[in-house]
Amino acid sequence: MSRQHFEAFVSQAIDEEKDKDTGLGTDELYGLYTSWCLLNNEEPQPPAMLWEALKAHNITPGNNHVGMKGPAAADYIISSAPNLV
Predict the structure, then answer these.
(1) Euclidean distance between CA atoms 26 and 67, whole angstroms
(2) Is the pLDDT of residue 62 over 80?
(3) Which residues does 70 contact at the CB level (< 8 Å), separation at least 6?
(4) For the whole model, what pTM was predicted?
(5) For the chain, which residues make up each domain, given as ranges?
(6) Which candidate, 25, 21, 17, places its Cα nearest to that of 33?
(7) CA angle, 35 as apex, 1 and 10 as ends, to 5°?
(8) Separation of CA 47 from chain center
């Protein structure tokens, strides 16, 4: 998978502001990624490839201070907790 694929995901769906108390865990990051892929007609790659790509942004699953943003965040949240809608 091209580097641009993961770069687009990070820029469109990851909020890299460091002021959050807790970040995203592995399930949340991969769920956000699969939501982003679905919305952008992209083929999701295995988690290991995503974790490797996130290293370039100093994002470690389960040990970070990043959040979600954009349409992929809304899709992930609605998909994860349909009883909230």
Answers:
(1) 12
(2) yes
(3) 12, 13, 36
(4) 0.90
(5) 3-84
(6) 25
(7) 55
(8) 11
